[in-house]
Specification:
single chain; mainly alpha; 0% strand
Length: 198
Amino acid sequence: EAATLLSLRLARAFDEAGSDDGARAFARLATAVAKYWTNKRAPGHIVEALECLGGAGYIEESPLPRLYREAPLNSIWEGSGNVICLDVLRTLQREPDALELLLAELRPAAGERRELAAHVEQIMKVLREGELESQARWLVQSLAVALQAALLVQHGDPAVADAFCRTRLVGEPTAIYGKLPRDIDAASIVARARVKPD
C-alpha cells in the first residue's frame, strides 16, 4: 500500500508539473527516491508472493515467475542504486527547494506520529552534517520510507499506517516481511486484503 500511495502521489505531481514549478521540483526528487526504493524492495516482495503460493508460484502458469525473473532488471534499466542515489544528491544540490517541498509533505503527518517526527529529525541531522555521498543510500531510503509513512498516515488505513510507522521508522528496520510486534492490529490489516465472496 505504501508503494502504491507513493506512485499515486508521484502521478499527481506529474499531472501538476506542467503548470506548477513546485510540483515539477517535487517530482524530480521524489521520482528518484521512489525509483531507488521500489527497485530495492521489488525482488524480496515478489519472493514473498512466490512463497505464499508455494510450488504453484514457481511454475509458468502464473505471472509470478516472470515477475521474479524481471524484478532485478528494474535496477539495470533505471540505473544502479548508487547512480540513483547520486542523482538524488545532485537534485538536492541543484534544486534545494525540492527538498523543502518534500519536507512540507512530511510535516503534517510528522505532527501526528512521533516515530515519523523522530525519523525526519534524523534525516535533517544527516543533511546538516554534510558528506552525503557516504550516507547517500541511507538518506534516499530514509526519504522514501518517510514519504511512504506520511502518505499512509494522511491517506491510508489507520491500522496499516500504525504498523508501517512502528516497524519501518523505529530502530533498525528489517527486510523480512511478517515480523510485526504482537500488538499490531494484523487481523484488521488481513481482513482488508481478504477477498470477500459476493
